[in-house]
Each structure stands twice: as C-alpha cells, then as structure tokens.
Amino acid sequence: MKLTGLREVQPLVDIDLQADINDPGQLGEVQSEAPAVSTVSERTPKTSGGMSESGQFSTSTTRLHGSLATPAVRRITREHDVELTEITGTGKDGRVLKEDVTRFVEARKSGELVSQLSQSSLLRTLQTQALSSGAETKVPLTHIQSQMLKAMTKSLTIPHFLYSDEINFDPLIQLRSTINKSLGASSPVPRVSFMPFVIKAVSLALDQYPLLNSRLEFDAGSKPSLIIRSQHNIGVAMDTPAGLVVPNIKDVKNLSILDIAVELKRLQELGGEGRLTPADVSGGTITVSNIGNIGGTVVAPVIVTGEVAILGMGRAQKLPRFNESGGIVAETIGNFSWSADHRVVDGATMARMAALVRELVEVPEKMFARMK
Ligand code: CAO
C-alpha cells in the first residue's frame, strides 16, 4: 500500500500486504468470514473441518494457514511463479518458509505435482458433500479451480471472436468404423475416437494458416509482436475427476492419426489418475475442446492465454438436412465453434481456417492427401 505526501512523488510508506490484492485467489484469506458459513481447509481435509475418518462431512471451522509468509518468501514465490496457497508451510502456524518454497519448486520440476490433482479430487468430493450439511458452507477452491480462476480471468481480457459452423460427421463415422475394425490385438489403442482426426485436421490446416498457431507477446515497452510457432502442440481440454485439465499433444505435425490416438490415451489415463506432469500441460499452441461426448450443440470456447484460437466441438447428432436434389436426408451433424483473438485474427482468416478444417473432416481423403 502506498501513501504519498501531497507534493511528493516518492511513497512515504510502503507496506507489504499479507495477501496480494491483485490475486483474487488470496483475497479469500483476508476477507471476514460470514458467521453462519463454515470453512473447510484444503490442507487438512482429513482432520478438523474436513471429511472425518468415517467419511462424514464436518462443518467445524478451520483457518487456512498456508498463506502466511514473510515478504522475502513471497518475493521468492513470485520469482518462481508459484502461488503461496499451493505450498504447505512447515513454519509456526503453517507459515511458509524459504525451504518450503525450494522443496515445492523441486517437486514441481520432477513432476510430483500429482498430489495437487488428488487434493483437487478430494476437495471436489468435499464441495459436493458440503450440501448435505444443510447450512451454507464455505470451502476453499480446489487447486484446479484456483488455476481456472487465474487463467480464465486472464483469458477474458482477450476480445473473443466466435465463429460457428456445422460439420457432417457421416464420412468420418464410416472411416472411423473401418479403421477401428482393422485394429488387432497388437494395436497400441483398442479404438480411435473422433478427436485424433480432428486434431490432425487442425494441424494440417495450421500449415496454411500459421497465424492461428501464434502467440501475442508484449515487450517491456508494451510493444506487441506475434511469435509464429512452427510446432503444433495441440491442447485437449479434458474432464477429469479433479476437474478441467488441458494437456497438449506435442508436435502433431509429425504424428500419424494412430500416434495421436496413442498420445491422447496416455494423457487421458494420466489425467484420470491425476498424474499429468508440468511438461504434459505446458507449451500448448492451440486448443481443441470436445464437450460433445457429454452434450451441447454449440459451445463458446475460451481462448487459453498464450494462444490465439480454440476449437469447441458440440455433440454430433442425427438431424434432417436437404440434399442436393432437395430431398430430406438424415445426417450426423455437429457444430465446430471457434474462438479467435480478434486483436490479431480477423474474422475472414478464422472463417477460412474453419472452412479448411471442415473440408478435411468431411472429406477425410483430402486429409490423407496432405499428410507427409
Ligand atoms: N459428438 C457425439 N459423440 C461424441 C463426441 C461428439 N462431439 N465426442 C465423443 N463422442 C462419443 C465417442 O464417439 C465415444 O463413443 P464411442 O466410442 O462409443 O463412439 C464417446 O463419446 C466417448 O468418447 P471419449 O471421451 O472416449 O473420447 P474423445 O476422444 O472423443 O474425447 C476427451 C476425449 C478427453 C476430449 C473427452 O473425454 C473429454 O474430457 N471431454 C470433455 C472436455 C471438456 O470438458 N471441455 C470443456 C472445456 S471448458 O470447461
């Protein structure tokens, strides 16, 4: 907090707050608690205030201590891009010490953040069970919710341009069925879903429209530039027991559809077990989000920061459509909805890229013609 004198430019007092007021994730710890609202601590889910040994939900109040730290320690967490609330403090009253930060950063490097995901799964259960207590219950965000809060708040500073189109899935359904029937016992995957085809189609289209695979960067003087990336690391939004995660399939340009299916399966298994590593979830260049396996026709996907486009797939379903001779036919129709960063991607480019992806998915032979 800066208090300045009437004519002075320099601050008179510089107070380092316990919580970063720019970080909504930390504000919860300094705001006053409503009297009838109970709190569950993420750090102590099996002891006071969490789920009892018998699995019952308890509504007693506990405090979150994990965010106590000296300004010096806070500075170190900022240097390592770590949220204080993510770290279990071993100091007095759960105070986070420098050694705790070092240990956390080392663990993160070696991919041991697994436990964060299992904590998220547990908290999701606690959040659901909180309902049965009958009273309003205050629970902390899961690790993944905290990440979503930060990421989505940033994402919404991007002006989104939404473009939606219908896709006829019938040719892909046929092709998929042929391929799946051909997969023998020695196949690395028992079946290939729609996703690997769509992911490959996106990658092939990116060869023609590399802008959609770029990143917008601002230098120290806020001068913007575009980083055009040659590698296609395609993120896949994934619904897991712990919540939404977005690992990415690296270098799709050099992968076959079967390779993509194998990698998708690996990521789905790791995501399901909460064992994705930082390497799996970082470095994405564009994202595909298929909510259609759950439902919904049109989705307005939110762009992941560091990317300029995202594809959202709705549910493919049998619908009546006119054929070329005016007769009504049943077709399997799904919507592909694209969001693009309108600061750098114009609508026409987005529409052309979307049209190419549609063409490749509707006439998969064209996709094979472009593969190396
Ligand atoms: N329309 C209709 N059916 C679909 C479909 C769609 N768009 N997408 C998948 N399906 C069907 C599949 O065909 C499959 O059934 P069959 O194998 O019997 O044909 C079934 O749904 C299950 O698919 P799947 O989940 O095993 O495989 P997938 O590769 O299509 O999807 C994944 C993988 C990870 C994208 C998906 O499991 C998932 O998590 N989706 C949710 C993503 C999400 O939450 N997005 C929102 C992000 S913003 O909060």
In short:
This protein is 35% helix and 19% strand. It contains eleven helices and 15 strands. The protein starts with a strand and ends with a helix.
Give start-end ranges of low-pLDDT stretches: 1-66
Mean pLDDT: 81
- State the order of secondary-structure elements, H for helix, E for strand: EEHEHHHEHEHHEEEEEEHHEEEEHH
Question: What's the number of helices?
Answer: 11
Helix content: 25-40%
Alpha-carbon distance between the termini? Answer: 58 Å
The coarse silhouette is globular
Bound heterogens, unique: oxidized coenzyme A
Quick one: biggest sheet? 7 strands, mixed
- Which value, in Å, is the CA radius of gyration? 24 Å
Fraction in beta strands: 15-25%
Structural class: alpha+beta
Number of strands: 15
Features of this protein?
binds oxidized coenzyme A, 11 helices, two-stranded antiparallel sheet, 15 strands, 372 residues, globular
Write up what this structure looks like.
The structure is a single chain. By secondary structure, this protein is of the alpha+beta class. Helices cover 35% and strands 19% of the residues. The strands form 5 sheets. Strands 5, 8, 11, 12, 13, 14 and 15 form a 7-stranded mixed sheet that branches. The chain has a two-stranded antiparallel ribbon with strand order 1-2. A hairpin with a 6-residue loop joins strand 1 and strand 2. Helix 10 crosses helix 11. The radius of gyration is 24 Å and the shape is globular. The termini are far apart. 32% of the residues are buried. Residues 193-195, 236-239, 244, 268, 289-294, 313, 315-316, 334 line the site of oxidized coenzyme A (CAO).
